[in-house]
Amino acid sequence: MSTVLYQVADRVATLTLNRPERLNAINAELPRDLRSAVERADSDPDVHVIVLAGAGKGFCGGYDLVEFAETEGEMNGNQEMPWDPTLDYRMMSQNTEDFMSLWRATKPTIAKVHGAAVAGGSDIALCCDMVVMADDARIGYPPARVWGIPTPMMWVYRLGIENAKRMLFTGDLITGREAAEMGLIQQAVPAAELDAAVAALCDRIKGVPCNQLMMSKMVVNQAYEAMGLANTQRFATFFDGVARHSPEGLWFRQLATEVGFKQAVAERDSGAPIAEGVSKRLGPNVTGGTPDH
After folding, report:
1. Residue 261: its pLDDT value, please?
2. Which one-letter DSSP state was computed for residue 21?
3. CA dihedral 61, 62, 63, 64 (to 10 degrees)
4. Phi, psi of 243 (to 5 degrees)
5. pLDDT, tens digit, 9 for 90 and up, residues 167-211
6. Of the spans 177-181, 268-272, 282-286, which averages the highest pLDDT?
7. What value does the mean pLDDT take over residues 20-38?
8. Looking at the whole model, is its pTM more than 0.70?
9. Which residues contact 271 (CB under 8 A, 6 or more apart)?
10. Least buried of 52, 140, 229, 257, by fewest C-beta within 10 Å?
């Protein structure tokens, strides 16, 4: 599994997202590799806790949109019109299922976040049972401004209605310190203390029998599943595809191919009215067809 490293020591399996040259951005292989690693750890009787970390400068910078968004023509995530939502749903629902292996695992899963867990990276982190962040690390879902909806939609289940809406209406990135104050994550600590904080949490958990951990996790998870988690994810996954094929989504895609993903993100997140940018680039009478490049 080239995109996810696997290591076990003293009842703890450490999975490490391993694309540091791309800030561990999600490519076509990573979701499947992650699920395989989680299932391997979950089936190992010597493992009591699963820790997920990121190699290099950060946890995960989201989907590899430098690779995807800057590519002209049809790609995974953007189809030529007419758009077939069932194909899009099949692809994204598979990724969501892979990320949710962290939720479904019978053993506790802990995300150890340094640097940033952005967009799809926040999806992965928030599928874990607990998140411990460096206090200066950042988390958020900027594509909620244009071009995405978080398909696992764990924000509402972790934050409640008003803070979940705040995060999705703005696409803001918040620090680990802010995330802890909002109740989004378990704990925020200085970056130099992150490894020690996660190790201390693991030490408190790993002595508990696997069967006890399984029962505790299942009884908590079923409460959220009874609240409609699966249906929420179905809507979110469908709307994620819509967001990438709306007039504004097509605008963002064209912008990325013309000026590069980083500049496109800067324009999207600047606070300027996005509708004005769409009108300028695609024309005032956008019908939803793929723009000419």
Report:
1. 84
2. G
3. -10
4. -60, -30
5. 999 999 999 999 999 999 999 999 999 999 999 999 999 999 999
6. 177-181
7. 96
8. yes
9. none
10. 257
Tally DSSP H helices, then E strands, for the chain: 14, 9
Query: Dihedrals φ, ψ of 109, to 5°?
Result: -120, 135
Q: CA 245, CA 51: separation in Å to the nearest integer? A: 35
pLDDT over 50 (residue 60) = yes
- Say if residue 82 is preceded by a cis peptide, omega within 30 of 0: yes
Euclidean distance between CA atoms 110 and 254, whole angstroms: 37
Tell me: pLDDT of 290 over 50. Answer: no
CA atoms within 13 A on the CB side of 165: 2
Helix (H) or strand (E) run with residue 200 in it: helix 194-205
Burial of 269 (0-12, 13-18, 19+ CB in 10 A): middle
Is beta strand 173-175 parallel, antiparallel or unpaired with respect to 138-140? antiparallel
Q: Which amino acid is at 216?
A: S
Per DSSP, 281 falls in state H
Length of the chain: 293
DSSP state of 151: T
